[in-house]
Amino acid sequence: MSPIISSGSTTQGCERFSVPADHSPSIAKLMSNYDKVPYPDFIHPATHPGNMAAIARLHGVNAPPPESCRVLELACGPGGNLISLATLLPSSHFEGIDLAAGHVKTGNSMIGKLGLSNIQLHHGRIEDWVTEAESDGERFDYIIAHGAYSWVPEEARQAILAICQLRLSDNGVALISYNTYPGWHQRQMARDIMRYHADGIEDPQTRLRHGKALLSSVAQNVPQGSAYRVALEEELKALDQANEAYISHEQFEDTNRPCYFHEFATEAASHCLQTIAEADWGDSTYEQVRPDVASALASLPKIRRAQTLDFFRRRTFRQTLLCRDSVAVSEQLQSSAMESMHFVTSSKLEGDQITGSNGLSGTVDHPVTQAAIGRLVDQYPSSISCEELCAIVDSQEPDSLATLKADLFNLVCVGLVSVSASPTEACREVSSHPRATALSREQVLLGDTVTNLRHQPIRLDDTTAHLVRCCDGQTDHVSLIESMIAYAMANGGLVEGDQVITGEENLRPLVNSKMTSNLQRLAAMALLVG
């Protein structure tokens, strides 16, 4: 493979990228900052190839099969997102690259513990991967750049797009996340206040504390109810709810460059890339927009429509799917593509009312659709293929089949049902010797967040985390009860309602009564494989 170094030339109207000198001052500082404060090992559900493929196919792109694909993640951090995917798609191959040596070391340690052979993490610069692919084996079906584009210097930002241009397979799909205007104008104001006050402070925690202190002081000394105070209080609330390591990088790094969506689309086009859609269902719908406005938006060209919708939503963040500009992308969703997909829902169905965990609700009128949703609810967290759902319909009722497909399509579009190009197979019944996923059993040793079989982050309390660790497939229910009693006694008891239960004589009946339901809860979280 040879680097693309002819920065002044173009190929078929696309920019060619110049590989910059190794470790510019800005890159060196970035490396140091991430080694001092490791970035949180976030999981990004939208980056699952099954999700990326589903959305791409619904837009007419014949995305590669997730079950046997090649995936590259740029700025992969400690690798948690990619490691989870590697455990879920064992026949696919994964590679990640990160600038921070500490991140890569942490990730490779986890890979070794799990015994994974389908994933590699590399320490290095994004720019070093700007190379021509000389064979299909050097291309990637899915490229992920989550939490990088807005937060790296210009040369690395251009390298991200160049890698997508040069290394995507013919029908490959890339996901790039970035901060967006107009929403980030408000956040930029809060960031500027904090960075100004913390200027010159080297210790990250002290810098964060001083920055938030001034922001809070400014908010408290602005007239109550004023637009300025409301804006500052919104930002303070968001900061209080966020991970401190995340805030340290998001708010205090030198580089954080939001952009308008139309600017991102233009930049991507200069690298022979086009936008497909957003990677999160519902992000491109007209929810909470008046019908007349929605109709006007629908008549606009694709990029202008999406940008205008961002103005309505005061959007701050995007996760955009892209592909080569030579690929045909449909403006209209291709509902027929769902016939090869898999459905799952965490929504609740009561009568004809369906209510999602996202707070949305709707009415399911047709009996066949009600039956199909009922099956999905019963099978959760496992998915059901479209073919299986359609088998509910009597072969003599073609109209009912058409109604079912149309209803499923609409429920997916509003986020009450999820769809994927790959199945989710979770253990719904608790066995005599429960076994949690190997990944979750390692993750509970490191923190309070684990990743489930749907590639979702799940926060656990300390007691539940200990139960996950004990579910090794070799321990029966009786032994699990003994282990939980011992854990509770060693850690001051268990909380039940507004009381703390202590002492073996009180803990034993409590743990006995709760064990079955707690194990069933782990199954519902998609954390059990046996």
Automatic annotation (TrEMBL):
Residue runs in coiled coils: none
Keyword Oxidoreductase: no
Every Methyltransferase domain range: 68-180
Domain Methyltransferase regulatory: 244-324
Swiss-Prot/TrEMBL keywords: Methyltransferase, Transferase
Domain of life: Bacteria
Annotated region (Disordered), positions in chain: 1-20
UniProt-listed SUPFAM superfamilies: S-adenosyl-L-methionine-dependent methyltransferases
Annotated Pfam families: Methyltransf_31, MethyTransf_Reg, WHD_PKMT
GO molecular function: histamine N-methyltransferase activity
Enzyme class: transferase
Biological process annotations from GO: methylation
EC number(s) from the headed UniProt entry: 2.1.1.8
Bias type Polar residues, positions: 1-13
UniProt key word Transferase: yes
Residue intervals of the PKMT C-terminal winged helix domain: 434-527
Protein name, entry field: Methyltransferase type 12
Lineage of producing organism: Bacteria, Pseudomonadati, Planctomycetota, Planctomycetia, Pirellulales
